[in-house]
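#lab-general

N.A. 3:47 PM
ok so I finally got the sequence cleaned up, no stray characters, all 617 residues accounted for. can someone with queue access submit it? mine expired

B.Y. 3:52 PM
send it over

N.A. 3:53 PM
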Amino acid sequence: MMATGNTSGNRLAGAVSPYLLSHAHQDVDWYPWGQEAFDEAVRRDVPLLISIGYRTCHWCHVMSRECFDDPDIAALINESVVAIKVDREEHGDVDATYLMQAGAFTKNLGWPLTVFATPTGKAFYAATYLPPEPRDSLPSLPDVLHAVTTAWRDNREDVLTQSQSLVDALAAASDAITSPAGVMPELADLAEASRSAQQQEDPVHGGFGEAPKFPMAPLLNFLIDRGEGGDSDARACAERVLGVYSRSALFDSVEGGFFRYSTQADFTEPHYERMLTDNAGLLLAYSRVGNTDMAANIVRFLTHQLRLDGGFASGQDSESVIDGQSSEGGYYLKDANERASLEPPAVDDKVVTGWNGLLLEALAAAHRAGVAGEPGAIAQELAEWLVAHHVRNGSLLRLSRQGVASEAPATLEDYGGLALGLLEVGSALGWAEGVAHARDILHAALDVEGGLGDPLLVSQGLSRPGHTPGDLSEGATPSGPSLMALALLRWSHLSSDPTLRERALSFIAPYAQQAIAQPLGFAGVLRALEEYRASARELIVVGEDQGGDWETLAAWNPPGTVSLFATPAQASEFLKLGIGLLEGRTDVSSTTAYLCEAGVCALPVTDPAALVPQLTQ
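B.Y. 4:20 PM
back already:
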């Protein structure tokens, strides 16, 4: 059987996503995610094949080469289904929705995700990687296509009934999980969640859980939060695990970044893609525990490998071409001299708003910790670029690539991540304009909250406006609800607007009890809860001279704290913005610190050494 020709090159050629562009040459008649594909499936009365992956996914490359590049398999796909190619990083809500549906068919969720659905998008079969011929326990993609076609032709009513039942059951389960909690967790509950997480530390190899082992940055940052509140066991656990990561094969000692995960419990055999999200979260953690050398290594990787003319790239591929052959991780097994003669693995150069927001938060922490590589300057330049290019008429873009914006709608992750990052950079650098942008983004998010979500999913009854689909899955990155909550809590404190605390709580309350019970998967929610329960404190330092011993205070930024360093001129800008914490504190003859807790302020201090005992109480 030979392929019959198609127009997928035309359909995908204009895509923003490098992942979609990598499939544009194939004979598969690919559609991008959108109404046109659904309409075509209805017209032809055939199922949808929804193939989801991302540019730096190794097994996505393998399945693409083995199956989608094969003209006979391509012809079978074109004959049997309407095929949709989705970049999970571009359409996060779509990915989350189909991961949730796929869980009914396979326990081994991951990417590539291969979903067969009715013409209205309801899944009736799903798998991950499928080979071109049966292999071990895996069926082949052609065999699955034949089975799906037969089921659709001969057992249509069963397929429609079962797929609708699955959607209904998942919606009911989601409602049960995300119903507002009656009682919010107390500090004692957060302490129990911390202990539960620590009990899942691998006593032999380090890290958390069993293979595969991921660098769980959100959990580490929650444990660091706990440590800053006096939980010495939590702090020690975080430092221990960070030490294991830095000594393991997850860390690229040549270029400085961390790989995605290890396939083995002892952290050998990494999966070699390098993601912006992982490295941003780890930069935040290493900076906060004072490991400035490791933090500087991550900054070096980010600036040399992922920094673009504007923004930071989503990640770097695991594969490269060595001696004419595709090599998984081969580049990373070379030393610096050997790498110099090789073409490095490709970079996925799309700029995702929320992920760059995570980097802003991390760079602000690195600046506070005195990390080498000028993270403060990098942070302000990135923040200004994002505001100039990803904020349009008060709304956000989800992502852009080489100056071209994606049509994918921005998510709660984008609003919360960018707002949080801008708040942290503004506070760390004394940049009132950045804080003002964060304020505007948060208000915009609250205005459009009910309208967030993928419109096609909503129109097909697969999602609800303003509803976060699927499991929050915060093992690798914090979720949109937790980022929004954390940003609102910090803006509420900085702006002295207590009404925003309850708005913040509304984002995480539905997941609060589940987070206490499953800390490894909901650590972003736990961080927001820790912020909510922490004592309200402010450290305001105003003066022209903030070097020397003053720099040692900059890293003090525990949960529940506004830690703001500014010159007198910058302090005046904050006051104009309506930040009442600067009232009466803009005109100083020498650098002065103001420390307050729960509305009670100590006397102003001009000697930084005098503050240390108060900060460690």
